[in-house]
Amino acid sequence: MENKIHIGLIREEKHPHDNRVAFTPKQCQWIMQHFPQVQIYVQPSPLRCFKDDEYEKAGVPLQEDLSHCTTLLGIKEVPTDELIAGKTYLFFSHTKKKQPHNQHMLQTILEKNITLIDYECLVHPDGQRILGFGFFAGIVGAHNGLMAYGEKTQSFHFKRVHTCHDFQELINHYFGIKLPPLKIVITGSGRVAAGALEIMGLLGIKYLPPEEYLINTYSYPVYTQLKAGELYLRKDDKTYSRADFHAHPEAYECRFLPYVTVSDILMNGIYWDQKIPPLFQPDDLKKENFRIQVIADITDDTNGSIPCNLGDSTIESPVYGVTKDKMEQTEPYLPGTVDMMCVSNLPNELPRDASQYFGDQLMKYVFDELLQTNSEMISNATIVANGKLTERYAYLEDYAKGAL
Q1: Pairing between β-strand 206-207 and β-strand 222-226 as defined by DSSP bridges
Q2: Which element (helix H / strand E) includes 321?
Q3: Angle between helices 351-361 and 134-153 (to 10 degrees)
Q4: pTM for this structure?
């Protein structure tokens, strides 16, 4: 027993409560069968998408006190008074960009000699992130965008995703739903866009190349997808290079404007930062030919790539309206407004599937590395080691000391 590696799945304590988990009961069972030296415990939780008895039936012991575990896995930030000194934690810490609301948590991690490995910083050798919930954000975001359009136009009705037990139940809900002719433009090419494309496929919405989409009309629902290279071109020579775009986004112009005149729904999954021009300007909303009625801003940057994103909506109340003349928030589904779906925690609507997908990536690419004594992947994702900032994250020193 002495050589066992004890791993704990912690209860999510951050408000609003997250219902996802790093490993499902079946994944825990698989790990313990294939790694006999590993014992997993789960902290009881009334809110987790997998019930306590599902873990017990899979042979995972429930344990309130996880102080005997060396490694603790969560999803969201851990409240400071819940942090156990001297442990290794894995969760999304949201500290690497010096986020103000997590400054105190990082200071406590340092004080308590904790080791913090951040999921967001775990990358493949080519720099691609290993873990993320973007695919299910895309699925739920695309569904919610269509749901909002159905309510606004009273042409069809979708049930809410969070009322479904899982993704399979959502798929069954699509049987027999016939959508009216409508045009959808999807931006981006990452996990979020992949999730949105999954919904297009399930509903039998036909893909069109951008140039056909722009000039033709159809008697059935269609969509097009605009990747970064189709959305942004250099102002001088009208070319696109990914590396150059990320290094000098201010040298690029956005080519989205023609799509506002022909699209009914925009599903936004594009990467954005402060220097990248938005998809359109606030004044464009006022124009007669601005046709878009619903925007599902799945990447959800307030005042970001979508200027009329006026802030987050919630899973309970996912849609708000925006007036076109003054860009003021209003009730959803009013005539002459743009309806916005800007939920920041979309995967929580399909938590069982999102957790399984996350755990699969964790098992495939990270778990072996976690059990090694000196993994480059793990050390590159370690923000704090035994209460000290690692060299790679030394730039957080002023943030950790209390300056911002």
Answers
A1: parallel
A2: strand 319-323
A3: 160
A4: 0.91
Q: What percent of the chain has pLDDT over 90?
A: 94
* Token pair for 234: 């250099």
Neighbours of 398 (CB within 10 A): 10
Contacts 24+ apart (CB under 8 A), 207-213: 213/183, 213/185, 213/262
Q: How high is the pLDDT of residue 402? A: 82
Spatial CB neighbours of 221, under 8 Å, sequence gap ≥ 6:
179, 180, 181, 182, 183, 184, 203, 205, 206
CA-CA distance, 140 to 313, in Å (whole number)? Answer: 14
C-alpha–C-alpha distance, residues 221 and 206, integer Å: 7
Average pLDDT (319-337) is 97
Give me the helices (H) in 14-160, please: 25-34, 52-57, 103-111, 134-153
Buried b or exposed e, range 329-345, using 16+ CB within 10 angstroms: eeebbeeebbbbbbbbb
pLDDT at residue 17 above 90?
Answer: no
- Phi-psi label, residue 49: left if phi above 0, alpha if psi -120 to 50, beta otherwise: alpha
Query: Which of 378, 382, 356 is closest to 366 using CA atoms?
Result: 378
What is the Cα–Cα distance from 69 to 9, expressed in whole angstroms?
10
Q: Which two tokens stand for residue 254?
A: 């956005």
Give the pLDDT score at 1: 45
DSSP 85: T
Confidence of residue 103 (pLDDT cuts 50, 70, 90): very high
Count the residues in the chain.
404
The angle subtended at Cα 303 by Cα 96 and Cα 19, nearest 5°, is 55
pLDDT confidence tier of residue 2, bands split at 50, 70 and 90: low
Average pLDDT for the chain: 96
Q: 20 near 348, Cβ under 8 Å?
A: yes
**Dist CA 85 CA 88 (whole Å):** 9
**CB-hemisphere CA count at 13 Å for 83?**
26
Place of tokens 């000039």: 215
